[in-house]
Amino acid sequence: MKYKSQKVAYWFFALCMLLFSLQIVYGFIMGFARIGFDVLHEFAPFNTARAVHTNLLVLWLLSGFMGAAYYIIPEEAQRELVSVKLAYVQLISLALVGVAAITGYHFNIWEGRKFLEIPRELDYLVVINVLLFLGIIITTLYKGKRRTTTAMVLVMGLLFAALLYLPGMIWFDSQVTDSFFRWWVVHLWVEGVWELIMGGILAFLLIKLTGVDREVIEKWLYVIVGLTFLSGILGTGHHYYYIGVNKIWIIVGGIFSALEPLAFLAMALFAVYMYRKGEKNHPNKIALFWTIGASIVSFIGAGLLGFAHTLPQTNIYTHGTLVTAMHGHYAFWGAYAMIVLAIISYSMPNMTGRKRFNNTAGHLAFWLSNIGMLGMVTAMGVAGVVQVYLERKLKMDFMVVQDEVVVHFAVMLVCATMFATGIGIYIYEFIKFGRPTDEAMEKNELGVNNDEPVKPQLVS
Amino acid sequence: MLSKSQAQAFFLGGTLVTFLIFIGLTIYSMMPSNDQTNHENITAEVIQGKHLWETNNCMGCHSIMGEGGYYAPELTKVVERKGEPVIKAILMSPVPWAPNGRKMVAYEMSEEDAEAMIEYFKWIGELDLNGFDHMVSPLAKDRMEKMKNK
Questions:
Q1: Quick one: pLDDT at residue B1?
Q2: Is A110 in Cβ contact with B57 (below 8 Å)?
Q3: Which of A217, B47, B79, B147 has the smallest number of CB atoms closer than 10 Å to its CB?
Q4: DSSP readout, chain B?
């Protein structure tokens, strides 16, 4: 840690840990409801549990992205944040808006639009909150000593994410038009601008962890985010195949969706190649695991599984089934959850001064959560394929088919327990680090004075 | 070998071109001549039905046009499948409807609201979903064919 104001990130990461654990609790409520134990129906019926589960995911990821920006931007801009007080105001208001929204869901106060359930009144508060966040970050960058590509890509991703929230706030009488523009928010976030944020964080971590020359990493960062937008923007079309809009989207969406894995493949190759070429033997192995893991799992979850699911010929069968849930879980886990956990794992020793770099608990958290998630996704995938076959091919009734897939959800719950154990250990480790301290500023993560930067390794 | 400025140009150029194509296709899709939704059939009751669909977060369990929670049945063409009286009874019921033991929230809707929901479902049922309507609702399709044969 080089700047005092970077400590703000800790509290955003702490909020992440809290919201993530709550998200898992609601995931279990849904899982048990699916196998017939809907015991909390009066308190949290399935639609409430689902809205809370997905919105908590978005909220903790956003909190993680914001924390990452507060940590990364001062180092990249080489100056303190312009206002630490405002950053805390932004954190508290973000938490309050989240709590208000989630409480409201238990009292039937929502908009009922998948992923965008937050009521309109709170939407305005979200906009104000994000504007405040962007104001702090952009002003810091503007006043900084340098504007790196890593910082610019990260900020561009955050800025576009804020702008793209707006189409989701427009009311449409037609369900079709409503869905059309809802995907402008949801798809262009997760398969567009969030990938910029992921790319920015990934580039920062690779620069720090591998020691490869910044110019090389940032050059390939441009290529990756270029591929992301080149395929991802028109790839929005895969959501438009079967919702009542023109057939042209079947062709356009089909072609560009098929190209979407390229960006993730490039990201995975980029991370692995930089790791192998880099000669900086960084002691924070756990951060390295999460970083390389994020790039590989996102390629499988978002890239390969997305490709298989969004081919128009396949999607006519899988659209609106558990196959979507399978793809969604692994894509979000690999692309976004893991990269947030990576930046937390990297920054915590630097902010607290405690060198818990390579301990057993940290590795256990990584492997348990990853094996658990893989098991969950496999169980959901099998349930999805069974559902497709029985419902769409054999024309069996939806509820009869749901009875047939109960066993797969029981397996999913076992795997979810393993996943939750891994995350529990991660959170325990987070707490064990303790609070950030100014003393941590004196030495960087390698135990050398911050005024003596590690010489970068040159590769082409 | 690719330079950093060339990589930057690839990113900015590619983004701009695909974004412009995306906007163009959006305008093309929204042109009245390409409408597949019978937009003129959206009545005040359909709008009220959509409002109720959203304010009760029906999408949190059910799906419509394949979008939703995958916990409860797809409701595209539900009127053809179940018939209006059954749907009204479910929406107006004071006790939770629980097919196969899976509970639905008891919404206790007024008759007016239940009818608005049915109008909304009817409008959805008439959409041209590029073939998905036949895929997702085989029972409705079979039933219609049987009725035709009679």
A1: 79
A2: yes
A3: B147
A4: ---HHHHHHHHHHHHHHHHHHHHHHHHHHHSGGG--S-GGG--HHHHHHHHHHHHTTGGGTSEETTEE-SSS-B-TTHHHHH-HHHHHHHHH-SS---GGG---------HHHHHHHHHHHHHHHTS--TTHHHHH-HHHHHHHHHHHH-
Domain extent for B127: 38-149
Partnered with residue A443 across adjacent β-strands are A449
Nearest Cα residue in chain B from A177: B30
Identify residue A25 by its one-letter amino acid code: V
Other C-beta atoms closer than 10 Å to the C-beta of A180 total 22
**Among residues 115-144 of chain B, which lie with CB inside 8 Å of chain A?**
120, 124, 127-132, 135-136, 138-139, 142
Q: Which residues of A fall within a CB distance of 8 Å from B50?
A: 173, 175, 178
* B75-99 pLDDT tens trace: 999 998 899 999 999 999 999 999 8
**Do B68 and B126 belong together in one domain?**
yes
- Contact call for A395 and B139, based on CB within 8 A: yes
- Going A393 to A397 to A400 to A406, the CA torsion angle's sign is positive
A243: pLDDT strictly greater than 50: yes
In this structure, the answer to whether residues B132 and B118 fall within a common structural domain is yes
CA A116, CA A105: separation in Å to the nearest integer?
A: 12
* pLDDT score, position A39: 93
- Alpha carbons A55 and A103: distance in angstroms, whole number: 12
**For residue range B29-78, what is the model confidence (pLDDT) as tens digits?**
999 999 999 999 999 999 999 999 999 999 999 999 999 999 999 999 99
- For residues A232 and B117, give the distance between their C-alpha atoms in angstroms, rounded to a whole number: 35
Which one-letter amino acid corresponds to residue A144? G
Give dist(CA A264, CA A98) in Å, integer.
30
What is the rounded CA–CA span in Å between residue A288 and residue A343? 10
Residue percentage of chain A with pLDDT more than 90: 88
Report the domain count for chain B.
Answer: 2
Q: Which of A171, A172, A242, A412 to mutate to test the interface with B (most CBs of B within 10 A)?
A: A242
